[in-house]
Design goal:
Length: 298
């Protein structure tokens, strides 16, 4: 019996097209797969499609879209043995870069069918509100404070047209006008304060920039980067430092390895480049929670 490959496809992704998906499906058929293409039509739909696809016991699920689409699919198949591959079609495709997956169509699909899946550890954010608690898994990072507010304010229409520029513009607007509030974080039992934080599960951020360079999906730890300055010139200096890979040398940047982080207050939170909501929250790790196809060839 031929194995089923489920392609979960976000047609709103920046570089997505029906023609590309048709070519990917045909390539998979030539490799011996039965193929189904499942199109998303709203935020959160990819997760529901992933859960539904598991009922048909696919041999492979492919998330075709940006990092946000991939995150939704991850949350639908976490703690299963079904391997996930990525077909990058988003704005920055950070996870593809982290895994060494080619960003061209045929390179990505070839990787999906010729590379062995590996168990990876994920980050978990548990947000707490009057309605109760909710947990979301992430592959790349959780951004707290300014980073979360920047993602919250990104124009969807501008993102479709300009890609990364939409994030840059939102960031500059927030640096110019956002009043930062002090964040209180409890990291492995020790209290810290800062004005913005990145909690990394992977090394890359926003492309090939590395805010948490030691973080890895193959390690169950988190790495936390705390930015302690609040003035505009501090924020611009941090941005320049990240671009140059020098931010960890700054006296007012703290870099820590951790297993659990408690975020107090009501700061904005983003995960994997998509807005999540508000603190308070607890961030931890889930060891070996996902089977993920990487860029390593058989």
């Amino acid at each position: 019996m031929r194995s089923l490959a489920s392609i979960i496809y976000n047609p709103a992704a920046r570089t997505a097209s029906d023609k590309k998906i048709a070519r990917a499906a045909e390539f998979l058929k030539q490799k011996g797969f039965v193929v189904e293409v499942l199109r998303t039509d709203a935020r959160g739909h990819a997760r529901r499609l992933a859960v539904d696809s598991l009922r048909r016991s696919p041999g492979l699920i492919i998330a075709a879209g940006g990092d946000g689409t991939i995150n939704e699919v991850v949350n639908g198949i976490v703690w299963t043995d079904t391997p996930l591959a990525v077909l990058p079609m988003g704005t920055t495709n950070v996870l593809a870069k982290e895994l060494g997956v080619p960003e061209d169509l045929y390179g990505a699909i070839e990787t999906a069918v010729t590379s062995l899946p590996r168990k990876v550890s994920l980050g978990v954010v548990e947000t707490i509100s009057a309605r109760g608690s909710e947990s979301r898994f992430f592959c790349l990072m959780a951004g707290i404070g300014l980073d979360g507010k920047t993602v919250h304010d990104v124009s969807t229409n501008l993102k479709k047209v300009s890609g990364k520029a939409a994030y840059v513009l939102s960031g500059l607007r927030n640096i110019a006008g956002y009043s930062l509030e002090s964040l209180s974080l409890k990291i492995d039992g020790t209290e810290y304060s800062c004005f913005s934080a990145i909690i990394g599960k992977a090394s890359r951020y926003g492309g090939n920039f590395k805010v948490t360079p030691d973080a890895s999906l193959f390690d169950s730890s988190l790495y936390v980067c705390l930015f302690k300055g609040r003035r505009r010139r501090d924020l611009l200096r941090y941005a320049a430092g990240v671009l140059r890979g020098k931010h960890l040398n700054y006296d007012d940047v703290l870099y820590l390895k951790a297993m659990e982080v408690e975020v107090r207050g009501s700061a904005h939170i983003q995960i994997d480049g998509d807005y999540l909501g508000y603190a308070p929250a607890r961030v931890s790790t889930a060891k070996d929670a996902l089977m993920l196809v990487c860029g390593d060839r058989r």
